[in-house]
Amino acid sequence: MAKQPMLKFVTVDRDMPKKRTAETRKEDFNEIYAEFAEQKAAEQASRCSQCGVPYCQSHCPLHNNIPDWLRMTASGRLKEAYELSQATNTFPEICGRICPQDRLCEGNCVIEQSGHGTVTIGAVEKYITDTAWDNGWVEAITPVADRSEKVAIIGAGPGGLAAADVLVRAGVKVTVYDRHDRAGGLLTYGIPGFKLEKDVVMRRVKLLEDAGVEFVLNCNVGEDITFQDIRAQNNAVLLATGVYKGRDLTGPGAGAKGIVPALDYLTCSNKLSFGDTVPEFESGELNAEGKNVVVIGGGDTAMDCVRTAIRQGAKSVKCLYRRDRANMPGSQRETQNAEEEGVEFVWLSAPKGFTGDPVNGVIVQKMRLGAPDASGRRSPEVIEGSDYTEDADLVIKALGFEPEDLPTLWGEKDLPVTRWGTVKASFGTHKTDLDGVWAVGDIVRGASLVVWAIRDGREAGASILDSLNASAAVAAE
User: Dihedral of CA 405/437/432/180: which sign?
Assistant: First the structure.
């Protein structure tokens, strides 16, 4: 009888790929985790309990078949593991790197709940697909038909790319419009290389280009081409613009020079990683070198900013967050990485105002947690008389993102939006009330996770195909 390859969580401890030391990794923007070796990946995959109700799978937005590809990895069947992994996920190697597994699959692992330490699902997922790329198992996309229908996608982020993948495989002619000079959206310009090296994104973009997807870059819809023209030229349009408008600060001095939006700061840094010349960096405006940096916010974008500032050679880096560690929205793993690299977290604190122009200080007011708000989280309350000033030569606003006013920007008053400015789209089909227009990702959900955008894009691609097929059937009658 074959030896049982699984259920080894009792005898095998949880282990992550080795992390480079903080001193080493803060000198560059390379990914901080090493790759699993085949033996180690199989060993860690073998810890899976193969439970009858896989909570890891049900708590994954893509419902990835995690237990099965863990079993295949443990058995050395890596190609089969990859094929199963990519069957439900357009970008498994990206999700393996940047998904907050501690809040999704790993956080709901049964053996984690029983005190044995979760299976390292994300690291194994990354290993499987990186191995597939290395061995040539990631095949070129070959459309199954040559269809005449044309679909436009506005936004080349994860939602738009996932939909493009579905549509081009079916033989639909796909054009993707994006305001940036490279495709990928936040994958390219919003997430630092130490979490997601850029060649990982670019090889996926090339796969789509080679399949026939046309990318129209440096294109602002509403300026370089009208939304109405895009609709007129295509059988369907998918909105996947994301949300790029950063929430602003208030208080005295909030408009001072040296107070910058998080996305501007991260985009500048990521452009440098491509070898681009960035005037705002060369002038020092978006360069943390030698400066006292204060980042305001407690989400993953704030973590990206503080860790980027460390790598740029900041004199000091502090993160102000109005709640405590237990109530912050960002990944605990990222917070730990940031602390190891020298970031100081100032919990229960919020900016009241700013001194100097250019800025030279943040007036901080201390907070305490009061009664829970409507969401169940305890609301921060100001402690009167607790103000003090933090030195700051660069202040980065990482307070979250809001949608742009698309109906006004695009001159399309009939585009249905919510009171928050997000686009209204049907759950499941992602179709809007505007004829032939679908919408996915953050522009519908508000700022959310990459994995949700991928799910939306895959579903919308299938929904658009259903609509095109229905129209073709009617035309054939």
Answer: negative
